[in-house]
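Okay, can you check this protein?
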Amino acid sequence: MRCLPAFGLALASIPTALLAQNAAAPPPSAVVKMHCASCHSGPVPKGGVLLDSADADQPFKDPDAWERVVRQLRARTMPTAGAPRPDHQTYESTIAALTASLDRTRLARDVSLTDTELAKRLSGMLWNGEPDQPLRDAAAQGTLRDIEARRTLVRRMLADSRSAALVTEFFNTWLALDELTTLKVDRDRFPEFDDDLRGAMRRETELFVESQLRDNRSPLDLWTADYTFLNERLARHYGIAGVSGADYRRVTWPGTERAGLLGQGSILALTSYPFDAYPVDMPTTSPAQRGRWILTRLMGVNPPTPIPGMPSADYPFRKHIPSVTLSKALPAAPCGACHQAFFPLSYGLEHFDVLGRWRANYGTDAIDASGTLVDGTTFNGPVELRQRLLERPDAFLTALTEKLVAYAIGGKLAMAEPTPASRMPAIRAVLREAENGNLSWSSLIAAIASMPADLQ
């Protein structure tokens, strides 16, 4: 069997300059020995990944383990906080060497979609329906095989109102917007959180994402765009003047604090406790929920597995204080190591309350929106948090592509399944092809459409 061109050797796509850097960088085995083996060794290695005896120079022998390593390195979530870390060039060269080896030994077979199957994959993915006549004509003429023609067709499909199905089917699931419907809220404390506000929060995010798709923006703009969609009810909730009526309109934010998804009430409310909750007995923001949301959706890494039975019911929690303050005050053992792994991701959002409104303080106490990521990177507030996270664009783009590929293959239910290691070479090939198309939504979706028919 010959190999699909888009899914060829990863090594061929690595720039010459990077290969030259890699030649001077330490081999993966040396990096793993220095920075990873001490924790990932013994009868109970951390994360269940044994690396002290694994061959980092031949990762294809255990792709499941090494794809997990690549994921952590890409997001810079390993080594753990406080441990000696590789420099940026060593991180990049190690990732490049590992993925080149993994991709080279796991080439996709040429089990191509037929033209009709390709058209159906596109229409199912973007419209959740059947191909229209122009798409059937393109399939009949064989133009869907040409990447530029396919990108043009995808742009047409994204501009069509039927692309709203991609938002309701894929994005609502990926962003967990479906959970807004059942979000528990203490109505005595928050009588303003009625069904109108609940619906407005969800609709804001849906319209925002629809506009990103329709304008064929870069997926990275989901985190930086300076506008949103508000009606009078939601504008009043955010404290934005000059918006009247029930209709939604595009509004440019007066500042940069709310840019992108991380400033929208839907996400901020979903990742809080707007009701009495253990371990605090009052509504509060949640570093665990907000940090987990960012870690899993933006960086593609699962948080550490909680220690069974920790903390116990009689653990000496301090009540009636913000959960973020509580999380910073917990002792290093047994909670600190896990908290440092992802809780700080939420600290920059502390100026947003449990319903996504901006606040200047906790009553009489000043808000501390500063944090330190696992790799020692510091930030203060939502603007700097976004900047730090977007210094790791490959982590987000890979995580997003994994979910889009799962959706294209198996629909919404498939998105909940972990990505098999065997699929990762194809996902990296998709991203390389999308980057050749200026990394827009059309280039990413067009690349996904041409994945092998037998990809699982």
